[in-house]
Amino acid sequence: MRNFLLTTTLAATLGLSLSVACADDGFSMVSPETAATRATTPSTPMKLFAGVSHSEALPHALEALKPHLEKRNIEKPKSETPVVAIMPPPAKPPDKLEAAQASLASAVAATKPPVLAGQVLAQPYLPAFGVAHETSNRSTAPVLQTQAQVQHYTTQWFMLPSWMAGLWLKTGDMTTQVTDLRTGHTSNVNEWTENRLQVVYGHQRDARGNYWHVNLLPAERDGNSAGKLVRFVIVSQACEQSTPQQLMTRTHYLVSESTPWNHQIVDTYQQESLNHFALLSNGTMNNSSSNRVFTYQGAPVRDGYLESNYAKIAQFSPVVTMNGIDLRASLNDFLRSHGMANLAQ
């Protein structure tokens, strides 16, 4: 059974050298030399990383994580002395914003193929073949990029729970369950993987004090694990659900592992992560994630559930620019274009 370990990305949404922590350097375009251009079948244990990111509203993430979350709640030992959660009061979105978010979700859902009556959606993950095909066909020849090309990003904004805004740190991840999709065999495990990661959530505030996070795609982040250099290329991110109490996101990315001495690629594959973030009573942030690994060509290999806890190490600080983009102006443009001009400042 292959080992599993966590990420995300974004230190990659929303990374980068503990990427998101350095907002201005957090997201960069991926050069053709960076992306792996050959399809390989991993010869070493395939690892599992839990992404941390976002984008448009997509269905089924809650259904995918619900059984695991319920199991966790049942098995969680009860404390003799109840602990009262202390957290800042959530910023309630105005009615117009809630309506706009619902409208956006409906618009996205309308673009999906119709589901036949009675049809059961057995798995919520998105097909991965297209991304692998496009990436594997990239030219390896040097490409001269103009300044405009380098700064060509897809900009995506979404609202955060107020308690989530700030700088967070985790030291590792616990894999709790693994399913081999080729055999259908499921194993309950408790495997700890050291994986230090800093990530910033929240870049700007609106006129009513709500916190907003931005994703710039494409994005990449570099990290290390088990003596190897690991590069994450984020190809899509989606905010599935955002409420004052929790955040649910979906991340799809390409992962490549290489040796630190000559940077030779030894493993390349895809992964999609569904992440459920919630604030615990002790002030830490828990991320329960469901992760699916694909071969580089896009064939599903295995699923895994991971638990990660983050400690807040710094409060929110607004980010003025990221990759040459004025984030205040970008957020204002987003708000005005989505019927929320009253929140612009």
Structural write-up:
The structure is a single chain. Helix content is 17%, strand content 37%. The chain is α+β, with helices and mostly antiparallel strands. It has one domain (19-36, 43-72, 98-105, 124-136, 148-343). Strand 2 and strand 3 form a beta hairpin. The chain is globular and about 55 Å long. It starts with 22 loop residues before the first helix and ends in an 8-residue tail after the last helix.
Between the first and last Cα atoms, what is the distance in angstroms? 53 Å
Catalogue the unreliable spans.
Answer: 1-46, 50-62, 75-150
User: How many structural domains can be distinguished in the coordinates?
Assistant: 1
List SSEs in N-to-C order.
HHHHHEEEEEEEEEEEEEH
Q: What order do the strands of the largest sheet run in, or round the barrel if closed?
A: 3-2-11-10-9-8-7-6
How many distinct beta strands? 13
Helix and strand content put the structural class at alpha+beta
Radius of gyration: 20 Å
SSE arrangement:
Layout: H1 23-26, H2 61-75, H3 95-110, H4 129-136, H5 147-150, E1 154-159, E2 166-180, E3 186-201, E4 204-205, E5 211-217, E6 219-225, E7 228-242, E8 246-258, E9 265-279, E10 285-294, E11 300-315, E12 321-322, E13 325-326, H6 327-337
Antiparallel strand pairs: 1-5, 2-3, 2-11, 4-5, 6-7, 7-8, 8-9, 9-10, 10-11, 12-13
What attributes does this structure have?
345 residues, alpha+beta, three-stranded antiparallel sheet, 6 helices, 13 strands, 17% helix, globular
